[in-house]
Design brief:
Layout (H helix, E strand, L loop, with lengths): L1 H23 L5 E5 L3 E8 L11 H24 L3 H24 L2 E7 L12 H24 L1
Antiparallel strand pairs: 1-2, 2-3
Amino acid sequence: MPYFIIIIILFFIDLFSKKYIKTKYPVNKKVNLYKNKIHIIHIKNEGFAYGFLKSYKKLIYIIMFICLIIICFLFKKSIKENDKLKSLAFSIALGGALGNFYDRIKHKNITDFISINSKKFKNLPIFNLADIFLFISPILVFISTFIEEIKEI
């Protein structure tokens, strides 16, 4: 049950962050947050990262739906196996995936707004909180798998 609460909380955090950005920042206006390294820039992303596949809207919906199904399946499996870290990882992924899926269905695009400038990593995509959740999730799955492997040694 706590995993479902995590999903709901993360979904609403993402939803409210996007709503806040939409009401406070005009599209494409760049606002410096920290030492010219972190910015808010409100964009409407019609594709995936960097606008990839934006001309193939139906394909994007299909891919997102299939990914949601896969995450749900893995989430259910992790709960059945009582793997708490993987269950947490997949609940975080579901919160993020549902946030982006909702945004795409309701607005026909995804609101992205976090921009990081780095000399080391050039041309990073602009992203949102749901993307951060989706980034964290596989790291937790990797850690969980690594711990399982160590236990078997």
